[in-house]
Amino acid sequence: MYADKTKLLALYFLLQLPLSVFAQGGGPPPPGLPNPPLPIDTYSTILLVAGLLLGLIVIISRRKLKTSLYCSKINSRTIKPTL
Predict the structure, then answer these.
(1) How does pLDDT run across 34-61, given as a tens digit for each residue?
(2) Residue 5 region, left (φ>0) first, then alpha (ψ -120 to 50), else beta?
(3) Which of 58, 54, 57, 36 lies closest to 46, judged by CA?
(4) Cα–Cα distances in Å, from 60 out to 46, 57, 67, 72?
(5) What is the pTM of this model?
(6) Whole-angstrom distance, CA of residue 80 vs CA of residue 78
(7) DSSP for residue 79
(8) C-alpha angle 33/39/40, rounded to 5°?
(9) Which pLDDT tens digit goes with each residue over 18-31?
(10) DSSP 25
């Protein structure tokens, strides 16, 4: 059983070898102009502003959550149910 799987796997790889050889390119590209640099600075201002806005939103929402939790603790201490 193990030998059959090994033979089948070896046959599979031997059949795949010619396909991978032909799939390779024809060598390095011809010399010419270098690739243009990536435009990293194009939208950097927009990215910076979006990050600042997101940070402000997170900070404001956390402050609101903390104050609401603090107020609920104060209210639960001051208001005592009477029986």
Answers:
(1) 776 767 677 788 889 999 999 999 999 8
(2) alpha
(3) 54
(4) 21, 5, 11, 18
(5) 0.40
(6) 6
(7) -
(8) 135
(9) 766 665 566 776 77
(10) -
